[in-house]
# Entry
Amino acid sequence: MAMLLRTHYKLAKTAIKENRTRSFLTCLGIAIGVASIILILSLMGSISNLVRSEIGELGSDLIVVRPSSTKDSLTNIVEELTSANSFQKSNLSIHDVEAISALENVTAASPIAVSTNTVSSEKNNFDSVPILGTNTDFIKIEPLALRFGAFLTDKNEEKSVVLGHTLSLALFNTVNSTVGKTVTIMGEKFMVVGVLDEIDKSINLDNVDFDNALIMDIKSLDQVTGSTQIQQINVKAKNTDSLAKISEEINAALINQKLGDKNFSVAYGDQITHPASSLFTVVSGMLTLVAGISLVVGGIGVMNIMLVSVAERNQEIGIRKAVGASSRNILMQFLFEALILSVLGGIFGLALGYILAFLLSIITPFAPYISWEIFAITLLTTVAVGIIFGIYPALKAASKNPIDSLKHYR
Amino acid sequence: MSENIIELKGLTKRYGYGDTESFALKDFDLTIKRGEFIMVMGPSGCGKTTLLDIIGLLDRATSGEYYLNGEDVASISAGRQARLRAKKIGFVFQNFNLIEDLPIIENVALPLVYTGYSKTARLKNASNALRRFHLNEREYYLPYQLSGGQQQRVAIARAIVGDPEIILADEPTGNLDSRASHIVMEELKNIHEEGNTIIMVTHNPALTVYATRVINMLDGQIDTDVKTVSDANLPQPISVKIKKKGKAKPEFVEIPSDDQDQSDSQDRKKRKKTRRKH
# Structure
C-alpha cells in the first residue's frame, strides 16, 4: 500500500509538471488564500508579543483591573462595540483606585482614563488629542522616561500636564523650552511640567499612544470634561510571589467597595495579554473570515482544474482500468493530485505570507511572528482543502466506465 | 491434458429495453482451453468486442455464467475484477491505447503498478519485455515517436509483462500496414507458442492461419467453430516467475511434470535465449 501511495505521488507529480502553467495558476489561488491567513495570524501573534514584552518590561508584579467581566465570548464583544460608547459602561471610579491603594500589599495603583479633546497653545491648536487621566502613581508603574521637567507630583498635580514628545513638537515646535508654558483645554489653562522622551510604541498595555498624548491628573480631567471613564486600573504588587492572593484581595476589596457589584475583572500574568481592545479581536476575526473565503475560492479553482484533468485523461483512466487499476486506485491517483496542488499552494502561500509580513515589518512595529502552530494550521487547512475539493473530481474519475472511456480510441 | 481456462454458459448481454432492446450476445456458450489461439471473426455489430470485454472483466453480462480457471467470476466485486485483470489478463487494442505522456517503458510497466511491484522491479521487467520486441533502445521514447507497428509491439509488451494467462487482442492489426501486421502476428504467434492463451478479434481472414481455432459469430451467437489443432497438441505454458520487490530478475522455474514436458520446456528456453542474442 505504501508503495502504491508513492506511485500515486510520483504520478501526480508528473501530471502536475505536464501542465506547468495550469498547475501554477491553481496553486496561486490557494497560495493567495493561505498568504492572507498567514499575514493575519502573524500580525495577531506579533501584536500580542508586543503587549507581552511590555508586560515583561513592566515587571511581573503587575495586576490589571478592567471594567466588566472578561470578554470571552463574541456576543459580549459585539455588544460592547455596538453600544454608543464603549467606555460609558465603565463602573470603575476613583474611589475604587483609592480602595486598591489602601491595600497592604499594593505599592501603587493608577487609573487609566483616556478621552480626546482639543488642545491649544498660543501658536497651534489640535483636535482629537488623546488625553490620559491618571494619578501620580502612574510613573511608578509605567517606567516612562522624561526628556525635560518632571512627572505629575502631589504638589503640582492640579493644573499641570505632561506632554508627549510629538505633541510637544506639534504645539510649540520644540521640546526644549516647553516646560513652563501653558496649554488650553476647554478654556482652562494648564501648565506643562514635563515632556516625555520619544517612545515610538503605539501598541501597549494602556492602549495609549504616549508620543501624541497629554497626561494630566484624573480629577482635573474630570472637572474639565465633565465625565471620565476609567478603562483600566494598573496595580503594582509589593511582591511577585503571591499575585494570585493579591488579586483575590483586590477582588474582595472592590466587591466590598462597590456593594457587591461584580462587574469587573482582575488579571495578572498572561491573562493581561488578551487583546486589550475588543475592536482588535473583531477586526482580526473578520479578516480571517475574508481570507478563509479566498481560500475557498482557491479550492474551487483546484476542483475546476481537476475536473478538466479528469475529462482530458479519459483515455488514460480507461487504459489504467483495463490493465488492472481498481476504482480505488484511480480515486487515490486523482485525490493525490488535488492534494499536492493544494499543499504546494499552501507552501507557496506560507512563503508569500511571510514575505509580506516581513515587508510590513519594515514600515510598522509588527515583527513577523513565526510559530509551529501557524505551520500546522497551514498544512492542515491545505490538506483539508485538497480533500474537500479533490474528492468530487476523483470520484468522478473513479466511476468512469473503462469501456466508454476507451470506446473512442479503439 | 489441457484444462479449461474459460467457460461461458448461457451468456447474454442485452442493450436497451422494450422496443430498443437488442442483444450483443445471446445465450452464448464457449469453452476455451489453455494454450488455444482463437480468432473471432464476424460482421460489425455481431458482439465480438462485447465478448472480449466480458471475458476481459471490463464488462458484465446481463445474465449467464462465466468461470475463469474454474472460479465463478460473473458476479464478483469490481475490485476483485480489477485484481484479476491485473494478474491474469492482458489487453491489446486496435489503437494501441498507450498513455501519451509516459515513456514507453512506463507504459509497459503499467500493469505491474497495480500488482505491487517495486519501481525497480517494474522497470526491469518492462525493460526485459521491451528487449524481447527489440525496442530496448527506445525505452524512454514517447509513444508518438514510434511507428504504428512499434507502438503495437509496445502494447503487446505491456500485455505480457505481468505474465498473464490470457491475452485479449481487439483487431491488433487493424491500424497497421501489411508489413507491420506480419511482424505483430509473428510476435503473437511466439507468445502463443510459449503456452499463452490468446483470443483475438479480427476482420482479416488471411490471419486465420495463425489460429488454432476460428470462431465465426453472427448476431450474438456462434455461427461456425473450427479447430485446426487438436487439444492434445496445444502448446503448454512454461511458468515464468518474477520475484516481487527487491530482486527483480525474472527466473525460470521448472514445474514438476513428466520428463518429456520438461525437456520440451528446456528446449524452448534455449530457443528463447538464442532469440535474445539477435
